[in-house]
What does this fold into?
Amino acid sequence: METIFLEWQSPEHHFNKKNNDWYWILGIVTLGASVLAFYFNDFLFGIFIIIAGLTIGMLSYQETKIMPVKISSRGIIFGRTLYPWMSFRSFWIEDENINGPRILLHPSGSYSPLTVIPIDEEIDLNDVRDILLEFLEEEFLEESFIHKWFDKILAK
It folds into this structure.
């Protein structure tokens, strides 16, 4: 029988509404890079750049979904995905992030990235920490410099 210790609603990812200038810059950079690729006879790369620019533009326009988050006896459930306790080594609660507090989970696999679960502002972080300590070790974890850099760029 599964026991739910804590649950809240959280956005799937942080969303910042982009202004028109952002889309103009994206279009100019995409067009310039694809023209250069076509000029150097790299047609496949030019088409890839155009598709990538269109994809980034469409994904940046979509608002995020609100997902249920549950901490249970089996693991953390984020939306419909269960992250079982046995697939993680440790956790860290990062409370000073530009997008709000979140749980960083260190996976057991060597080459797997950190799993990031956003925490609602109304949830007491000490309660989350106490529950997670029942299943995982607490270890200072930090996202890579590149991931933090992209968060800052995309937040503008």
